[in-house]
Design a protein that fits this description.
The complex is a heterodimer of chains A (506) and B (358). Chain A is mainly α and 506 residues long. Chain A has helices at residues 6-25, 29-47, 49-73, 81-113, 128-143, 152-160, 162-165, 173-181, 190-214, 219-222, 230-261, 279-285, 288-299, 309-327, 331-357, 363-386, 390-400, 434-449, 453-462, 464-471, 474-496. The longest helix of chain B is centred in the N-terminal third of the chain and has 26 residues, at 2-27. At the A-B interface, helix 1 and helix 21 of A face helix 1 of B.
């Protein structure tokens, strides 16, 4: 069930909200949490009832694992905590490896050694990367003594909570459990409800209007193997960079907004990543909860920066390669991760050099330049992220470099007659001229110059208008207005056909 | 309970206020307002829409290719009135000839009108197929006595002629001969009057229905994984339909095949790049048979595939609103018009058919 569908917006969400607040109003808080967990399982089961069993098995296993590890830490039970942790993490990774990577490994071995072993054609369970990582984090935190969970219902809800289940944010147990314990979480709060609905609306607009709007310009560059000019390639890659950002940040806004409607705060996942002034900054702003996970549970576990600068760079590189592989079972994702690892190494080395020689940069022109350079590097890496295989990626990259020339749309020949001598107007295979330029220009202006969703919401909620609205009856009028806007966007979405979120693939 | 009811009322107020705001905004924008259909006075294709009414067209949610105009005395979208018995050159086709997404001046019929000294009437109605073209030809003969005709043949015209569709003719061929079944659509006259009045024009409804193609049944819950809106299943058109079409056209129009031009469209996306080729709705042998049989019968056939291919190789310009709308753009119409003119002038057919004036 997609957040953008009528089934979700008209039936699932209202039923879920009504049930939750009605049960909670009767004073049955644990029952309300159970209702939410049950509805979350139904949400997951809508896609594939069979894989709900896998999800429940994973939850049961990790909950039991967490209890055993916690007991072992207290010196109770027959086992030691560390072997238990290693075994539990290994089981999780094995399941992930089977469902997500088995065919990738077999295919790679086939190609390398000509083994001709048949592929297993395993169907990737939706959200397996997200719920596996969430639970590994829980096990590691339990081992570290940061958390301990006794209530199965709360643990079930923590993992299955439908706003984050399929595509994140990747949650920390410690930031969720106190919220499920809190009495105020189960009390209807119009302030949170309205803010959540508004953020849901912003997320829907990002996905339906912007991500799906610019999407038609992407496939001709990546999927058809057309002969591309530099303009074609850059047009397609920029369109993809914007599609991916609005798609995933739109999903994250929806998830956070939906959680607010239930008085639950999810961690932020995006903070205007394309405004980043360097790659380190980019990873502090893009898919922030995954970056946090990779840093806390992989980079630091590998030794982080505690083992000297060379080992630090190796750890960084390994972390990013594995982060790339987490996104998808393919060599293009490995290369994408490796590229970002290399970018991060160069970035850290450059910062160390600047620090050593005492150079403080070029002021605002330097910031503009570094933002553009960062954005260009990110776009080069996105080519591997989007391309179906290595050859397709190299084909697009070659065109981006200008190796296939810089032919402009033939339609521009007449309007640009004054410069016809110095430009090539042979025509473009994929670039759609002014229309595509307007889409890219408009969305780039939004990502570079407009405040992001959380800045907008923070400013709104701090404003006197909001306070007055929430205090008075206008809040219900505003809620009705937002509901109508959500319905209109859902209708608009239906007119575009089914369009899943890109991160559902991961 | 009172507080609950009050909150519901306020919620409803906000909901309605948003819809009203949308209505106000949409009234200022060129949304797709359907042309008021003609009163159901009979199965006439000649008069598809109400005469002398304004129309406004755009596609998709972002109002692509917005155009506006006024229907003529026959409810056709040409901007001038047609005269009975005026012996025109008629240009028949579906939405490619109706061409709502292009300004009137660039449409095929307008370009042919500039080239010849006779009236040129565009008889284009969205959704027509080969069976409808034959009926249109019969009705046009009665009304205008055309001296020549151009038919724009688009992929799907033959398979679609075997399907039931409201306000269209379905062809059935059997041992007894042809059967053309008309599917009437009799709208409620009061609703029609209301929709035609300014009071009944609800821009938001038009936008939902015609720009977004929304139907209220979509709101019902689906107990399965949603799938993209499916295209109608089409029956394969047998070659016999093509033969029937070619036999009927000259008889229906009462003019020689040499004065009937068939402009047969091509998969233009495949011309831009072979990898963009689309699976055809009519089998490739249907298109091939149409061209060969029509030439053998003496029709003036314009195969647009080589025309588009050579023009694209020369200029690199696309002939449609690629990639969002396959209909011909201004260049597409101009290219087709030039190809038809060339075909007619090549064998002196233009003069023989009286296109250079009486």
């Amino acid at each position: 069930m997609l957040f953008t569908s009528f089934d979700f917006l008209l039936y699932f969400l209202p039923l879920c909200l009504c049930g939750y607040y009605l049960i909670a109003a009767g004073g049955w808080r644990r029952a309300a949490a159970a209702w939410l967990a049950l509805m979350s399982l139904a949400f997951y089961g809508w896609w594939s009832p069979a894989y709900t069993i896998l999800l429940l098995a994973s939850i049961g296993f990790n909950y039991a694992g967490g209890l055993l590890i916690a007991r072992a830490r207290r010196g109770q039970g027959r086992f030691k905590a560390r072997p238990l942790l290693v075994a539990a993490v290994a089981v999780n990774l094995t399941a992930l490896a089977y469902f997500k990577y088995a065919d990738f490994f077999i295919d790679s071995l086939d190609r390398a050694f000509g083994l001709e072993v048949g592929l297993l054609h395993v169907v990737l369970p939706l959200g397996i990367s997200f719920f596996t990582f969430t639970q590994i984090a829980f096990l590691v935190d339990t081992y570290a003594g940061k958390v301990s969970e006794a209530r199965f219902v709360h643990y079930l809800l923590f993992v299955t909570y439908f706003p984050h289940l399929i595509a994140g944010p990747v949650l920390h147990h410690a930031e969720m459990m106190p919220q499920f314990e809190r009495e105020s979480t189960y009390r209807f709060q119009l302030d949170n409800f309205l803010a959540g609905a508004l953020l849901l609306l912003i997320g829907l607009a990002k996905k339906i209007l912007f991500a799906d709007g610019i999407q038609p310009f992407v496939a001709p560059v990546f999927d058809h193997g057309l002969p591309l000019s530099g303009i074609d390639a850059w047009g397609g890659v920029l369109a993809y960079a914007l599609q991916l950002y609005f798609d995933f940040s739109g999903y994250s806004d929806m998830a956070i907004g939906l959680a607010w409607m239930f008085n639950v705060n999810l961690p932020l996942n995006f903070n205007s990543p394309y405004k980043a002034v360097n790659i380190v900054d980019f990873w502090r702003r893009w898919h922030m909860t995954l970056s946090r996970f990779l840093r806390d549970y992989l980079y630091i576990a590998l030794g982080g920066n505690r083992l000297g600068f060379l080992r630090r760079y190796v750890n960084l590189f390994l972390t990013m390669v594995l982060g790339g592989l987490w996104h998808g079972a393919g060599w293009t994702f490995v290369i994408w991760g490796a590229l970002h690892g290399a970018y991060l190494i160069v970035n850290h080395a450059w910062q160390a050099l600047c620090h050593r020689i005492g150079w403080t940069g070029l002021g605002w022109p330097g910031r503009v330049l570094s933002t553009l350079l960062t954005f260009a590097c990110v776009n080069v890496a996105w080519v591997f992220f989007r391309a179906h295989d290595l050859n397709a990626a190299l084909h697009v990259l070659s065109a981006m470099s200008g190796a296939q020339g810089w032919a402009l749309p033939a339609e521009w020949r007449e309007p640009l007659a004054a410069v016809s001598g110095c430009c090539d107007f042979r025509g473009t295979a994929a670039f759609d001229g002014l229309r595509q330029l307007c889409w890219i220009g408009g969305l780039l202006a939004l990502v570079w110059f407009a405040p992001n969703s959380q800045q907008l919401m923070a400013a709104l909620r701090a404003s006197a208008v909001w306070q007055r609205t929430v205090a008075g009856g206008q809040a219900w009028i505003a809620t009705g207005t937002v509901a109508a806007a959500i319905l209109l966007l859902a209708i608009l979405n239906a007119s575009l056909g089914v369009s899943e979120f890109i991160y559902f693939n991961f | 309970m009172r507080a609950f009811l009050r909150n519901c009322l306020l919620f409803g107020l906000g909901f309605v206020a948003f819809l009203l705001a949308c209505e106000l905004v949409l009234r200022l924008l060129p949304i797709n307002e359907p042309i008021v259909p003609a009163q159901a006075s009979g199965p006439s294709l000649l008069v598809p829409n109400a005469p002398h009414v304004d129309y406004q067209y755009s596609a998709r949610w972002f109002l692509l290719n917005a155009q506006a105009g006024r229907t003529n005395n026959y409810g056709q979208i040409d901007g001038f009135d047609f005269r009975p018995d005026s012996r025109p050159l008629i240009v028949v086709g579906d939405s490619y000839i109706e061409s709502l997404m292009n300004p009137e001046a660039v449409r095929l019929q307008s370009q042919l009108a500039a080239a010849y000294k006779v009236p040129v009437y565009g008889l284009g109605v969205s959704g027509l197929s080969a069976s409808d073209y034959v009926v249109m030809a019969r009705q046009a003969r009665e009304e205008f006595r055309p001296r020549a005709a151009v038919f724009a043949i688009i992929d799907g015209d033959f398979s679609e002629s075997l399907q039931l569709q409201a306000r269209r003719y379905r062809l059935r061929l059997d041992a007894a001969g042809e059967h053309l079944d008309y599917t009437a659509l009799n709208p409620n006259p009061w609703m029609q009057k209301l929709r035609a009045s300014s009071l009944g024009k609800v821009a938001l409804l038009d936008y939902l229905q015609y720009n977004l193609a929304f139907t209220p049944s979509e709101l019902l819950p689906k107990l399965r994984t949603p799938t993209p809106r499916a295209k109608d299943a089409r029956a394969a058109a047998p070659l016999a339909v093509v033969d029937w079409f070619l036999d009927e056209l000259p008889k229906s129009l009462g003019i020689a095949p040499a004065c009937i031009s068939l402009a047969v469209d091509a998969d233009r996306y495949a011309i831009y790049d072979a990898k963009l080729a689309q699976p055809p709705k009519d089998a490739p042998e249907v298109r091939r048979h149409l061209i060969e049989a029509a030439r053998a019968k003496g029709f003036n056939v314009v195969d647009l595939a080589p025309v588009f291919r050579s023009a694209y190789a020369r200029d690199g310009l696309k002939f449609d609103h690629w990639p969002l709308d396959r209909h011909w753009n201004a260049l597409g119409h101009r290219t087709v018009a030039q190809a038809i003119e060339q075909a007619w002038s090549a064998h002196g057919a233009a003069a023989a058919c009286g296109l250079e004036g009486d």
